[in-house]
Amino acid sequence: MIDFEAKVVLVTGAAGGIGRATCRMFHGAGACVVLADLDGEGARRAAAELDSSGDTAWSIAHDTTSSADTDRVVAEVVARHGRIDCLVTAAGVFPPRPILEMDDASWRTVMAVNLDGVLYASRAAIPFMEPGSSMGHIASVAGHRGSPMHAHYAAAKGAVLSLSRSLASELAPLGIRVNAVSPGIIATTMTDGLMARKGDMILASTPMGRMGTAEEVGGVICFLASELASFVTGETVHVNGGWYIAS
Ligand SMILES: NC(=O)c1ccc[n+]([C@@H]2O[C@H](COP(=O)([O-])OP(=O)(O)OC[C@H]3O[C@@H](n4cnc5c(N)ncnc54)[C@H](O)[C@@H]3O)[C@@H](O)[C@H]2O)c1
Fold first, then answer.
1. Order of strands across the sheet with 86-89?
2. Could you tell me the distance, in angstroms and rounded to a whole number, from the CA of residue 90 to the centre of ligand 1?
3. Strand positions, DSSP E, the chain
4. pLDDT tens readout for residues 35-66
5. Burial of 169 (0-12, 13-18, 19+ CB in 10 A)
6. Which entry of 26, 120, 153, 243 is annotated as an active-site residue?
């Protein structure tokens, strides 16, 4: 029941650790995957690893903070495939910043990538999503618990959770499901700095005693998009080895 044969999946932030792993998993289950990222060259390489012909995996440079650019990306996907069966929003940034140094520009940048981008991609994709389609938005444990030195990030991710639930209610009559995934500490370049500063403490307070892999997040996203989760909408799945419940 995890079969995405002939399905069209658009992933933002697809050159990143979680985005790439998610694309690999969808593609491995038969999907045609479109990899969008600000890092156009990274997205191109990731797509080529999946399908060098470009038939079932292709990339597009994309700035998720721009609604016009996001409309352009969606228009290109629709021009090529006619519809979008699954949207995954994985673009994100996680820069540390103490609250007293959080100037307007740093606040705005983090909100723009992590929150505005989710709205822009969802809003652009909805008209091209048929009944049975779905969205998976990547939030974070920070959106539930807050995150010291990352108040902007935690605020954006908390808003992604409530945006997802609102979309789930609003889009259910159209047959579109919307769910969120909240990863804990996952081994990608995004967490290198945090692990260098506080890794021992974080692992000690994680019942499973390790970081997660990008595939362990991608697998949950695929499950939520699949027929196995056909009655699941408005939900958030935590992927954190028990970190959330333990601390
Ligand atoms: N790694 C973790 O531990 C963790 C934990 C919780 C949540 N998350 C979330 O998971 C998602 C993926 O993170 P990751 O760990 O793969 O990080 P990553 O840094 O490997 O990937 C993030 C990707 O987003 C892209 N991006 C940044 N700004 C962009 C923009 N303006 N437009 C388009 N793309 C842009 C980057 O180029 C990069 O490829 C993010 O939303 C992140 O907040 C990650």
1. 57-61, 32-37, 8-12, 86-89, 134-138, 177-183, 236-239
2. 6
3. 8-12, 32-37, 57-61, 86-89, 134-138, 177-183, 236-239
4. 999 999 999 999 999 999 999 999 999 999 99
5. exposed
6. 153
Please, what are the domains in the chain? 8-246 (3.40.50.720)
Helix (H, G, I), strand (E, B) or coil at 90: coil
Residues with CB under 6 A from ligand 1: 12-13, 15-19, 37-39, 62-65, 90-94, 113, 138, 140, 183, 185-186, 188-191
* Token digits of residue 13: 């932030």
pLDDT tens readout for residues 63-108: 999 999 999 999 999 999 999 999 999 999 999 999 999 999 999 9
- Name the nearest CA neighbour of 165 among 232, 233, 63: 233
